Amino acid sequence: MAKPRWRDDLRAVLVMTRIAIVQAGSALYDTSSSLEKLEKLTREAAANGAKLVLFPEAFLGGYPKLNDFGIVLGTRSAEGREEFRRYFNSAIEEGGSECVQLENLSRELQICLVVGVVERAKSTLYCSVFFFSHEQGFLGKHRKLMPTALERCIWGQGDGSTMSVFNTDVGRIGAAICWENYMPLYRTHLYSKEVQIYLAPTVDDRDVWLSTMRTIALEGRCYVLSACQFLRSAAYPEDHPLRKKFGDDEILIRGGSCAVDPMGRILVEPEFGVETIRYAEIDLDEIPRGKFDLDVVGHYTRPDIFQLSVNESPQLSVCTKNDRKSTDFIQD
Ligand SMILES: *[C@@H]1O[C@H](CO)[C@@H](O)[C@H](O)[C@H]1NC(C)=O
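That is the input. Now the predicted structure with 2-acetamido-2-deoxy-beta-D-glucopyranose docked in place:
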């Protein structure tokens, strides 16, 4: 992968790139209408000049907040299994038709598109981020390494093979999903891949989230952009028990999307209780200015004392070995 090229024209031209952070939720168990909403919001952001559009965690596939999937310690209910079946069917696949639609949208609008999705791979779901660029199409994905609490009952764990930072025309982009942002070794890995635009799709709507994002921006001397869902109970289908319990207007996830520059300055303040698209203007030249006195994977490290080792190889639970050549098979 190509290294970032720093512009050497100093202040000759100030090139700012506009990034859109979408704060919205999607229709649970209705992937086609969620995809329509994604397309509408992406078109709006692109029309406003955004070159990268970021969606929150699990936007496609959904984040069924407050749902217990019928789980108590030691047993699972039949209703919970049916709930999971519906959720399973709402997930999308790498290379599937939704994925192709996102690729097409990114190409048509000449933007990068980064979307939190629930990914189905065979019979397991993952909380993933899919990355698209207009130049290269589907760039790849990141699967959440460590789902939090009850999430572990509905999502599998990603392995070390989906922790890339991608080179795009807006900069080098990588993602940490929700509480992966509290995994300091994963952050260090992203810094070592020279992440310039650190993306944090989330559903964490706490006040302290902003402090976390500021710390990461300062620590990594990179731009940090976080998109959080804004979700009302009306996102559940009308026949769903949680819709009946909460009605239409209960706020399940209140937002709080934000953006911070490499010196920790807030570019986008969190706004709670609304669906919105927020915009940040970024200038990659701020990164070397910031790294001047702090590079936590370079001049500000002590590898003689501390080192991080990372296993990026895909972990396969079934390895099939077949040494026979195709000509060994008898055709009949
Ligand atoms: C995506 O774009 C290709 C090429 O333009 C087109 O053939 C295809 O039908 C599109 N697919 C979808 C799902 O939009």
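Residues 97, 100-101, 104 surround 2-acetamido-2-deoxy-beta-D-glucopyranose (CB under 6 Å).
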